[in-house]
Design goal:
The structure holds 2 protein chains of 2 kinds. By secondary structure, chain A is mainly alpha-helical. Chain A is built from 13 helices and no strands. Helix content of chain A is 74%, strand content 0%. In chain B, the strands form 5 sheets. Chain B has a 7-stranded mixed sheet, with helices on both faces. In chain B, strands 14-18-13-17-15-16 form a 6-stranded mixed sheet. The chains are: A mainly alpha, B alpha+beta.
């Protein structure tokens, strides 16, 4: 049964990837300029270079052959070179993606750590002041645009109070060897150089972007957890348990929570795609050297190979993350496996 | 929203970092300089981009000689002495002994600097047999625009520490050109090692010089890291590290000054100077500078090939308004191509004045009674000569609308922008030039000579034989009075023909934390951080 489900998801994944790759491939024809240049990223090539490229990209043959040649190169990690830097797009992505992922993971962590207890608290005090307080708080957080919040925090905490830096991942004078690309892990691997100051500094730099990025998913999780809890608390088995004389804490912790958190788990996974989108804006504002800032710069510079590669990487990642979240959720909740058709 | 625990840990984070008072030694661990653009290359020979020169030239390299900014006399650098033959066609340099090239991850020198390095460096510019001449498309924009590649007959090795430059003809600006930031000395040994490995293309990307700092790493759009050169020949270098934080946005650079993420920032915009100067922990330096911000027309492209059209457009612009809105009063309105500080300066009576009625008449005469559409390319970065080209373009757009000319403003990323200007893809462009030497030729030959047109440096795409002849005549003599006359005539031609409209001379600004010492602004050339330190 579960195997069947996983297979179905995998089929869906393959199909999504196929559509995505076709779309990316066609982009090089849809972008202005020469398709061969857009694909390879090599500008001003000489005649012999051009024919070598045509050969390698199978540009003399029909679109289907070209597409398969494209797929082959994508799998081999040959994603063309960026117009702006003249370096491999894949290398750029490999360097930059961990920074985005790191930021998003911490933000997700914070939003789960704050959002889920927040939602439980709100439902436990349903219609009393903690609930009202949390509810109005989430409403503000929910409706505040990310960039505005970011600028506000920079204004107050960086420019006025001077507590936090406003850009980058860490002080530039600390030199950390990038091994994994995750700054905190790299510092740990380097055995906390500069007497641990580098680690503190990196945390220091992380604070504001993490808060900004965590804001939206936190509010979503609070509201979702609260609603889910209320729904469960309303069910008859809870009423029965209550009638048997359980107190409120026992009721929530032993009976309601388990069932209420199931849909929340699914929601956490789904938040990841929102996070990646919001991360782009956050990165631009905080000069965070991640893939979002790079992608936006590339769009500004009309760097077509980079735009293509960046889009492909980000969307592939979002699809993967969503499917993994679904699978995890299914492992926890056998009922959901009965769906006849896949949905993302 | 935020849980007490989180808030607590934040407070700790803030507290933990601020609690320790830093000693001078800790402070001198490094300096962060906020730069406005990625470097185009790490070899000053192959570029004239000011933002790049600021970052690389004086930090990584040394020149044979330099010009003292105060006395305008030549100073010995890698050459300790030089003798000019009576006919002016041969110059013999005596080189400094005991100068070491940088030791880096990719190169370890086995010998000191000597005559071979000088010969290699300068023969690359003109000698087709130099193995590096054609590396990077054989483009040496500064040297080609001033014609050095046509001037040097050969460079002779007299001994290990003596070289003789033999010229085809005596040229009065030759030494001044060797003193520019572009004429740095590169390592021949390093070049040959790369050649043996067939990696010539790395030569301009991974620099080896003799300067105060050693290259460590460069990450595009992020940073450039240099370390102290422990063997620097001139003086001990105080800073352990020098890091360039690449921040194209001017407002962000100012904000980073306020948050102490930058110690020094290049070109803070005039609009924000007041915010910076209010702070006690930041000092703003202001210095006269030899430069010109101009509006260049692509004179090969109709309708700009008609001088009446150029004059009409020039008379339609209200320069006084630009001086206020773009330079905030911190600039000098141009009265010629040359700034008043130059010895050859002469205020031009024929400079176009703001006169929309005249502009309309001229346009009608040229056959464009109903106006036309054109584009103005506005440079995307802030430079001394033009702190905000976008704003200037917008002001001009509204001025030109009044005479029926519709303007479309074009912007690209800086390096792409320069490349496309070099290909003459523009109608007109707002650009500028900051001098590398006090010699007036530095304003004329690199910008408006015919050779500059071919090397892509001439933004007006303008080749005027009479003007070129004047430049050559001025270079052929060392008589200052005569040179002055030639340059006066040349200035007059520019104002009559208007391939470019000189707009203003900007002031050079720099903001630095008040504990940063030892950075002086020179009226010409790139910035030097060799003596920088924190106290």
């Amino acid at each position: 049964m579960i195997l069947d489900y996983i297979l179905r998801r995998l089929a869906l994944l393959m199909f999504m990837m196929l559509t995505l790759s076709i779309f990316t491939f066609s982009l090089s024809f849809l972008f202005p300029g020469d398709a061969l240049t857009n694909l390879s990223g090599i500008t001003n090539s000489t005649f012999s270079q051009t024919s070598a490229l045509e050969e390698r990209f199978h540009f003399t043959e029909n679109y289907i052959v070209q597409y398969f040649a494209f797929l082959e190169r994508i799998i081999q990690g040959d994603w063309g070179v960026s117009f702006a830097s003249g370096e491999s797009v894949f290398q750029h992505i490999k360097d930059l993606f961990p920074a985005t992922l790191e930021l998003s993971l911490y933000a997700l962590f914070v939003s789960v750590a704050v959002g889920v207890p927040g939602g439980i608290l709100a439902s436990a005090y349903y219609k009393r002041w903690p609930d009202k307080f949390i509810n109005s708080g989430t409403l503000i957080g929910y409706s505040m645009p990310v960039f505005w919040l970011a600028l506000l925090l920079i204004m107050v905490f960086s420019l006025q109070l001077g507590w936090f830096p406003m850009s980058g991942r860490m002080g530039l004078l600390y030199e950390i060897e990038p091994v994994t690309g995750f700054i905190l892990i790299d510092i740990m691997l380097g055995n906390f150089p500069y007497d641990g100051m580098a680690f503190l500094d990196a945390l220091h730099h992380l604070t504001l972007p993490t808060i900004v990025l965590a804001m939206y998913p936190t509010t979503v999780l609070v509201r979702f957890t609260r609603d889910s809890m209320l729904k469960v608390l309303d069910q008859s088995y809870i009423k029965t348990a209550r009638a048997k004389g359980l107190n409120r804490a026992q009721l929530i912790i032993h009976h309601a929570l388990r069932n209420a958190l199931l849909p929340v788990i699914k929601q956490i996974g789904l938040q990841f795609s929102t996070l990646i989108t919001l991360a782009m804006i956050t990165e631009v504002i905080f000069s965070w050297p991640g893939i979002g800032r790079w992608l936006i710069d590339s769009i500004y510079q009309r760097d077509y190979p980079a735009i293509q590669g960046g889009l492909l990487a980000v969307s592939m990642f979002v699809i993967l993350a969503t499917i993994i979240a679904e699978l995890t959720y299914t492992l926890f909740d056998p009922l959901s496996r009965n769906q006849a058709h896949g949905k993302v | 929203m935020f849980k007490p625990l989180l808030a607590l840990s934040l407070v700790c984070l803030v507290g933990c970092l601020d609690s320790e008072e830093k000693t001078t030694e800790q402070k001198n661990q490094g300096l962060v300089y906020c730069a406005e653009a990625n470097p185009v290359s790490f070899n000053p020979q192959v570029t004239t981009t000011g933002s790049t020169i600021d970052i690389i030239a004086n930090q990584l390299y040394d020149r044979l000689l330099s010009i003292d900014p105060v006395s305008a006399e030549f100073k010995a650098e890698l050459a300790t002495d030089w003798k000019i033959s009576p006919d002016g066609k041969a110059i013999t340099f005596t080189l400094r002994k005991g100068v070491k090239f940088h030791t880096t991850k990719y190169f370890t020198p086995s010998r000191d600097f000597n005559a071979d390095d000088v010969i290699f460096t300068f023969s690359r510019l003109f000698d087709v047999y130099n193995p590096y001449h054609f590396v990077g498309e054989a483009s040496y924009p500064y040297f080609q625009s001033v014609g050095i590649d046509q001037l040097i007959r050969r460079i002779v090795r007299v001994s290990d520490y003596q070289v003789r430059f033999e010229l085809y003809n005596a040229e009065s600006s030759f030494l001044a050109n060797l003193a520019t930031d572009f004429a740095v000395v590169l390592s021949e040994e390093y070049a040959m090692q790369l050649k043996a490995r067939n990696q010539e293309n790395l030569f301009d990307q991974y620099p080896v010089g003799t300067g105060p700092y050693v290259y460590k790493e460069y990450r595009r759009d992020r940073l450039i890291r240099y370390y102290r050169n422990p063997d620097y020949w001139k003086h001990p270098v105080v800073l352990e590290q020098l890091v360039y934080d690449i921040t194209p946005n001017g407002t962000t650079r100012v904000a980073k000054m306020l948050t102490k993420e930058c110690d020094v920032t290049a070109h803070p915009s005039s609009a924000q100077l007041s915010i910076l100067s209010q702070r006690e922990d930041i000092k703003v330096q202001k210095e006269q500078n030899l430069n010109i911000g101009y509006w260049a027309f692509n004179t090969e492209r109709p309708p700009f090939d008609d001088v009446r059209v150029r004059q009409a457009l020039a008379s339609a612009i209200d320069v006084d308004k630009i001086m206020q809105a773009v330079y905030y009063g911190n600039g000098i309105k141009a009265q010629s191509l040359l700034p008043p500080a130059s010895w050859a300066f002469e205020a031009q009576k024929a400079m176009p004045e703001f006169n929309p009625a005249l502009a309309k008449t001229l346009l009608a005469e040229a056959g464009y009674k109903n106006g036309f559409d054109m584009n103005i390319w506005a440079m995307p970065v802030s430079r001394i000569y033009n702190p905000n080209a976008r704003k200037m373009a917008e002001l001009m757009q509204s001025d030109l609308r009044k005479i029926g000319v519709n303007v479309n403003i074009v912007e690209y990323e800086w390096n792409t922008f320069l490349q496309r200007i070099g290909e003459h893809r523009h109608d007109s462009v707002l650009l500028g030039w900051a001098a590398d030497t006090p010699d007036p030729d530095n304003f004329m030959s690199p910008l408006l000579s015919c050779t500059a047109t071919f090397s892509g440096k001439n933004p007006a795409n303008w080749c005027h034989p009479e003007f070129d002849l004047l430049l050559t005549q001025a270079l052929d003599t060392t008589d200052l009075e005569k040179r002055k006359q030639y340059y006066n005539q040349a200035q007059r031609i520019i104002v009559q023909e208007l391939p470019i409209l000189p707009i203003a001379h900007g002031m050079r600004f720099q903001a630095a934390s008040s504990d940063v010492k030892g950075i002086s602004l020179s009226p010409f050339g790139g910035i030097s951080l060799a003596n920088a330190r924190k106290e």
